[in-house]
Write a structure and sequence with these properties.
Elements (H helix, E strand, L loop, with lengths): L2 E5 L3 H12 L3 E5 L16 E2 L12 H8 L7 E3 L5 H12 L3 H29 L10 E5 L2 H15 L6 E4 H7 L12 E5 L3 E2 L2 H14 L3 E3 L4 E7 L2 E7 L3 E3 L2 E4 L5 H7 L7 E11 L10 E4 L4 E6 L2 E10 L12 H10 L10 E9 L6 E4 L5 E5 L5 H16 L17
Parallel strand pairs: 1-2, 1-13, 2-9, 4-17, 5-15, 13-20
Antiparallel strand pairs: 3-8, 5-7, 6-7, 10-11, 11-12, 14-17, 14-18, 15-16, 16-17, 19-20
InterPro entries: FAD-dep_OxRdtase, FAD/NAD-bd_sf
Family: Belongs to the DadA oxidoreductase family.
Pfam families: DAO
């Protein structure tokens, strides 16, 4: 039986291991953390949101980045630094900020996100896996009438592809989620995506890792990947700080750290880390907490209820591999949470987190084959890792097993960007 090494035990790596193990393959997952979902999957937004598939590289993005050079209150922040990888990535990002490329990249992301949601539902039903999921849709709130009209035009493009949305006035918002009643004077309306979902990515990943163990998957936690041992056009082994692990096939699912390992195999990945911040609060009054996940579009603050906790995330900080943070980085999230759900949470008991999202300059992830015959990629999903995980991993698994993928991978492969 072929031995497969999956590098990374985040949501991408664990879902990849699951599909490979279900196909009867011998799988070893390697991760430097002491448990699954210890980094980017630890405390992310929790939204499974094909309805939020718009590519970040857009005609509006360059001006937002320019303003961020002297302001700290923008949702997308760029920090000047001497880093050739950053400048290469930045130039590629700007090249994708045309209307034509934005639409192409958005379509690719939407197609993958919809397929991935279908795979998540199938997995959830097959394994009866629980992760504080809410499957009643997501709500995207607008505070300004002009911005609301812009948002409706933007979803018109996604609606034309057959993805359902509803436009709600503020009274309809409150009927949909009564927790918004105290804040109804703060917004003018919302866009509701009934097929979007939310849930705890860490809980999902850890529960799925336990299912994987039952399928025979071996997890090497607390083990750092140092490099790849290459011979000709193949990888013969993964070199770690503990041992050499021979493998017939290797999958790189290391998120923002994938370029460092891929470089060892002579492969340059167009991925750069974008730091995101998350705030988790214990609930004080469950009746006052949201029953749907969503986004405050004016501040680009995402929110999701996860059992007895409220999760908020915001900000995309293009600042290299720094994961440091301070309470001021979360001020906007706290302000938005207090405005929308004033009685829901214990605001004096915050848990702060920052992680690195593996962003490609165009938006779609990098999946599948590489110039090396037995090396595969599952990375670059950016802020939509949970949304895209099951679909991406199923596609990569199909390619590894010589099966025809269910959807085209145009625009998602290393050589087709």
């Amino acid at each position: 039986m072929a031995a497969i090494a999956v590098l990374g035990a985040g949501v991408m790596g664990v879902t990849t291991a699951y599909y490979l193990a279900k196909a009867g393959r011998e799988v070893t997952v390697i991760d430097r953390q002491p448990e699954a979902a210890g980094e980017t999957s630890f405390a992310n937004a929790g939204l499974i949101a094909p309805g939020h598939s718009n590519a970040w590289a857009s005609p509006r993005a360059p001006m937002i980045l320019l303003r961020s050079l002297w302001r700290d209150d923008t949702a997308l922040r760029f920090r000047l630094r001497f880093d050739p990888a950053l400048w290469r990535w930045g130039l590629q990002f700007l090249a994708n900020c045309t209307t034509e490329r934005n639409r192409r990249n958005t379509l690719i992301k939407l197609g993958l996100a919809r397929y991935s949601r279908e795979q998540l539902i199938a997995l959830r039903q097959a394994e009866r896996i629980a992760y504080d999921e809410i499957v009643k849709g997501c709500i995207y709130l607008y505070r300004d009438p002009v911005h609301f009209e812009t948002g409706q035009r933007a979803i018109g493009f996604l609606k034309a592809q057959g993805y359902p949305f509803e436009t709600l006035d503020r009274e309809a918002c409150v009927r949909l989620d009564p927790a918004l009643a105290p804040a109804q004077d703060k917004f003018v309306g919302a866009i509701y995506a009934p097929q979007d979902e939310s849930g705890d990515c860490r809980t999902f990943t850890q529960n799925l890792a336990r299912i994987c163990e039952g399928l025979g998957v071996t997890f090497r936690y607390g083990t750092t990947v140092r490099g790849l041992e290459r011979k000709g056009d193949r990888i013969e082994a993964v070199v770690t700080d503990r041992e050499r692990i021979a493998a017939d096939q290797v999958v790189i699912a290391l998120g923002s750290y994938a370029p460092q390992i891929a470089r060892d195999a002579g492969i340059t990945l167009p991925i750069y880390p974008v730091k995101g911040y998350s705030l988790t609060l214990p609930l004080k009054d469950k009746a006052a907490a949201p029953t749907l996940g969503g986004v405050d579009e004016a501040n680009l603050v995402a929110f999701a209820r996860m059992g007895d906790r409220l999760r908020l995330t915001a900000t995309a900080d293009i600042a290299g591999y720094d994961t440091s943070h301070s309470p001021k980085d979360f001020a906007t999230m706290v302000k938005v949470a207090r405005e929308l759900f004033p009685d829901a949470a214990h605001y004096d008991q915050p848990r702060y987190w920052a992680c690195l999202r593996p962003m490609t300059p165009d938006g779609p992830p990098i999946l599948g084959a590489t110039p090396l015959a037995n090396l595969f990629l599952n990375t670059g999903s950016g802020h939509m890792g949970f949304t895209m995980a099951c679909g991406s991993s199923r596609l990569v698994t199909d390619l590894m097993l010589g099966r025809k993928p269910a959807i085209p991978l145009d625009g998602m492969t290393l050589d087709g960007r």
